[in-house]
Amino acid sequence: MKKTIKKIQKLKSEGKKITALTAYDYPTAKFIDNAGIDIILVGDSAANVVLGYDSTTKISIDEMVMLTSAVGRGAKNALIVGDMPFLTYNISYEEALKNAGKFISAGADGVKIEGGNDYTIGLTKRLTQAGIPVMAHLGFTPQYINTIGGNLIQGKDFETIIKILDAAKKLEEVGAFSIVLEMVPKEGAEFISKNLTMPTIGIGAGNACDGQILVINDLIGKFDDFSPKFARKYFDSKNMIINAAKKYIEDVTSGNFPNDDESFSLKDEEIVKLENYKQN
Ligand code: KIV
To answer: Which atom of ligand 1 is nearest to the CA of 45?
Structure first.
């Protein structure tokens, strides 16, 4: 059954944890949807883990929309959220609305936008009024890495936790349906979660958040350029792929692949004709 924003919010009010993962392609979306995941985020982390860019700021709206449409075809039940990439929502509300609309047309049920300044709060209101559900994102916001000054934990003291909470409350008031909290100390994330009605989805923010999200390629060990402390690896795709490729190379070079079961055969009489055929 399709998960809606109301159903996701109900999980928090019932004290049930919300599960979220990223996905960027049709089969992965289909498999994690079958596994019962609540939310699939087509994250701009695709920039790093799928397309090999060195920063999330480098992925384009067209690339993100293409990945979202593949995920949309794969996932039938999970709530699908498209991550609006760098500068596709910060120039003007009009442009942001058009770009958010592209995600919805591609199959997303909502969009995620990073930040909690006055502009982002106003935009969250506009998008929500236009019928586009917004997932907010505070704490470490990767698209602001250059102004933050690095991959840094956010909310390390009372004052900054209160700042995050204040911004989150404003985003909630204007209609955000949930919020990602990234790289926030666990006690701060717990305090923020308890003081919001909308669900918090943590990543590197301890286990008191209302839900958790991880990048699928970290979960299945399919990205090794860097590995954040909070990324739990459940599977070693990297070595499984390397070992499968090595075995394949061995089988092809030794003549062991393909075998008869993996080949098509002619009927005996056609083979005889070939054997008797003499070229001029
Ligand atoms: O892009 C992404 O994958 C994200 C998650 C880490 C929340 O924003």
So the answer is: 1
Pairing verdict, β 211-214 and 18-22: parallel
User: Residue 235 — φ and ψ, nearest 5°?
Assistant: -160, 150
pLDDT in tens, 143-163: 999 999 999 999 999 999 999
159 is annotated as an active-site residue: no
Task: Provide the 3-class DSSP secondary structure of residue 94.
Answer: helix
- Total number of residues shown for the chain: 280
pLDDT above 70: percentage of residues in the chain: 100
By CB atoms closer than 10 A (0-12, 13-18, 19+), residue 272 is exposed
Q: What is the pTM of this model?
A: 0.96
203 phi and psi angles, rounded to 5 deg: -145, 110
- Tell me which of 172, 182, 262, 275 is the catalytic residue: 182
Going along the chain, which residue ranges are E strands?
18-22, 39-42, 79-83, 110-114, 134-139, 178-182, 200-203, 211-214
Helix/strand/coil percent split, the chain, to 5: 45, 15, 40
Q: Give the residue, out of 51, 80, 203, with the most ligand 1 atoms within 8 A of its beta carbon, to mutate for a pocket test.
A: 203
Q: Which residues line ligand 1 (CB under 6 A)?
A: 22, 41, 43-45, 83, 180, 203, 213, 215
Q: Is residue 81 within 8 Å of residue 111, measured between CB atoms?
A: yes
